[in-house]
Specification:
5 strands, alpha+beta, about 25% strand, about 150 residues, single chain
Length: about 150
């Protein structure tokens, strides 16, 4: 994940990033790299994630015309629930404003905190579905590198 202040900054970095991506791809044994572009629409850090923290990623999609209203609902209702969870470290919400596709990520200090949040997430996804949000795969990762401001 790389974050840029503007689309122009991101585009200007593309030649350097392309080389770095190719080197990483080869170091990892080949394969395919998929690049997705999103706008960061929410970001909260309670405690700086560390190597070994656990990341839960949730894909979603909605009508692009409903992004602003659903984002307000997320900030008002959902983010406080997530951030109130024991072991919460950070949250990031990314959305492609053209397609309505998005990705939310939450970072947890240990497996117990992650699992408790994942269980509570079922009710949050049900509420989101009632608002026209479709949820896709949920992934779990271990943080192996972090360099957050």
């Amino acid at each position: 994940l790389s974050i840029w202040a503007t689309a122009a900054d991101r585009e200007a970095s593309e030649s350097a990033l392309g080389k770095t991506r190719e080197e990483a791809r080869m170091d990892l044994g080949g394969g395919e790299i998929k690049i997705e572009l999103f706008d960061q629409r929410a970001f909260e850090v309670r405690r700086q994630p560390a190597v070994g923290s656990l990341l839960m990623l949730t894909r979603f999609e909605m009508d692009p015309a409903r992004i602003d209203e659903n984002l307000e609902w997320f900030r008002r209702e959902i983010a406080p629930q997530i951030m109130g969870g024991s072991g919460f470290q950070a949250l990031r919400l990314l959305i492609n404003p053209d397609s309505g596709e998005g990705l939310s990520g939450t970072v947890w200090e240990d497996r117990a905190a992650l699992e408790k949040s994942a269980e509570a997430g079922a009710a949050r996804r049900e509420a989101g579905s009632a608002r026209g949000i479709t949820f896709g795969e949920i992934g779990f990762r271990e943080v192996i590198f972090t360099d957050m401001p």
